[in-house]
Amino acid sequence: MPTAQDLTRAASLLRDCQLVAFPTETVYGLGGDARSDIAVARIFAAKNRPTFNPLIIHVPDLATAQTYAQFSPLALDLAARFWPGPLTLVLPLIGGRLSALATAGLRTVAIRIPAHPTAQALLHAAGIPLAAPSANPSGKISPTTAAHVAAGLTGRIAAILDGGPCAVGLESTILALDPHPTLLRPGGLPSELIEPVTGPLAAPGPQITATHVTSPGQLASHYAPNAPLRLNATQAQPGETLIGFGPIPGDLTLSAEGDLTEAAANLFATLRTADGLAGPDGRIAIAPIPHQDLGRAINDRLNRAAAPRRPPLIPFICS
After folding, report:
1. Distance between CA 284 and CA 248 in Å, rounded?
2. Angle made by CA atoms 79, 36, 314, in degrees to the nearest 5
3. Could you read off the pLDDT of 138-193 as tens digits, one per residue?
4. Looking at the structure, do residues 35 and 182 belong to the same domain, yes or no?
5. Is residue 74 part of a domain?
6. Which of 83, 119, 164, 305 is 20 to 30 A from 278 via CA?
7. Per-residue buried b or exposed e for 209-235, using 16+ beta carbons within 10 Å of the residue's own CB
8. CA 181 to chain centre
9. Is residue 212 part of a domain?
10. Same domain, yes or no, for 164 and 239?
């Protein structure tokens, strides 16, 4: 846990429209004042993130969330059951208070309450809503330690709060409720826990394209190591570093016991290690992951990491 002095300094930087990376229970987030166009533009610039891709807004409590989003009875039920925690709700925006850059000009806002004590302490100390995508260059492996953040963003941001490794290790589950409950991104809260509250969850429709998204976390190519990634491998081919799972051993493993919770927590750190072992000319292979519970979210990240790479983005520069 960072010291009180660290938190006070970080909060002051955020109120001054600077960027601070901080831990959540899912991954490290890159925080900036969600009300400020300058702060949000700095997030896009630091990550080289496309501006059509909206950001998740982090707030300390439900009362604060209700000042930025309209909550239906179902949304309130979900918030009561799963917040604080790894669930993001996409809800109708209450306009005029958040930067339009943070919401990509949409009439909805993606919002959540993180459970990590450092995130909570920072939100209370800063007293502002934080737009906070994962604290890594856009499209690359998400960070689950402060060292991961430093490796990707040193020199681009003002500070990093070190709260230790993230417990969940996968980004939040993203859920839209209008016109019906829709799973926009599987994540740290399994759909098996959500559907008893919402009923069966729909999948996102065909409106999702390379430049038109309705929430964060929907780009087809994302979370990618530098080395090419081959999925559902039962053994390594020449030149490959194999990541095992359960009964399939490898050079590394997500979970020797086949535990999906352990695998989720280890996923991004293991991909980083494998990327280093593979080197500039190597490849990564990964064993099959069961498509259930947290395995759905793990497979979602792996499919995106293995997808064809999009061309480099033109940096978004703020003056």
Report:
1. 15
2. 100
3. 889 999 999 999 999 999 999 999 999 999 999 999 999 998 999 999 999 999 99
4. yes
5. yes
6. 164
7. eeeebbbbbbbeebbbbbbebeeebee
8. 20
9. no
10. no
